Amino acid sequence: SNDEVGSHAVSLRVTDAAGLYADQSFEVSVVNTNDAPTLSQMIDNKVATEDSEFSFVIPEGTFEDVDAGDELITSVSLETGEELPSWLTFDAVTNSISGTPTNSDVGTLIVAVTARDLLGKTVSESFELTVEDIFSVNETSDGNWEIKLSGMDSLRKNKDGSQKVIPTLFDKTKNKVKHPVTGYKNVGDAKKDAQRWADRHF
Fold first, then answer.
1. At 29, is the pLDDT very low, low, confident or very high (cuts 50, 70, 90)?
2. 104-138 pLDDT tens trace
3. How far is residue 188's CA from residue 194's CA, in Å, rounded to a whole number?
4. Distance, first Cα to last Cα, the chain
5. Are the beta carbons of 171 and 184 closer than 8 angstroms?
6. How far apart are the C-alpha atoms of 16 and 9, rounded to whole Å?
7. Distance (Å, rounded) from C-alpha 125 to C-alpha 58?
8. How far is Cα 71 from Cα 65, in angstroms, rounded to an integer?
9. Which of 29, 123, 184, 202 has the least CB density, counted as fewest CB within 10 Å?
10. Quick one: which of 65, 148, 51, 145 has its CA closest to 100?
11. Cα 138 to Cα 57, 144, 151, distances in angstroms
């Protein structure tokens, strides 16, 4: 194994029936062969929110290499081998992945993190990075829909530091969105209005 790499002294003694013996010493050299790095810690799936900064540092010790003195170089791409989307960057110095997604980036990416040793052998670990829409819609117990600002928990932050939930309801009977501040609007206008409202309050 890799633990036995190096020179090992061997002493050999041959003894005959009369008790006479002869000694011979020699060395056995175990030559190292490059072992591929291995994954020692899985990377959990991550969630980013539209228009909010995302940052993730790849934990130290995610990959390891049993070869003494070997170094690992980390790179990040999509699992398909394509480069990361323009909103997402990898900093090899800090081992961090960061960026701010927009509405057009909503969806799920499969990101591959690859460790390469000095002789080119690699190991990769993939994880899902889901970009959530800033708005989510859930049906309420009374049959209406509640539209929430994802990542902000639909909270209004007051000057005194307190917080208040401000839901936006979709009224099925009127087929309109009832915003708690501005009243009834169609869905498209309500989303724009909610964005303007969020910009004012957060």
1. confident
2. 898 999 999 999 998 889 999 999 999 987 665 55
3. 10
4. 59
5. yes
6. 24
7. 11
8. 8
9. 29
10. 51
11. 32, 9, 15
Q: Are 121 and 38 in contact (CB under 8 A)?
A: no
Supply the pLDDT for residue 167: 55
Instruction: Looking at the chain, list the stretches that DSSP marks H as alpha helix, in order from N- to C-terminal side.
Output: 187-201
- Cα distances (Å, whole numbers) of residue 116 to 7, 33, 74, 90, 92: 28, 16, 6, 16, 13
Query: What count of other Cβ atoms lies within 10 Å of the Cβ of residue 7?
Result: 8
What are the tokens at 192? 């724009």
Print burial letters for 15-43: b (CB count within 10 Å at least 16), e (below 16). Answer: eeeeeeeeeeeeeeeeeeeeeebeeeeeb
**Pairing between strand 163-165 and 168-171?**
unpaired
The H or E element that residue 135 is part of is strand 135-139
Take residue 156 and report the two structure tokens written for it.
């209004």
What the block records as the tokens of 97 is 């992945």
pTM for this one? 0.58
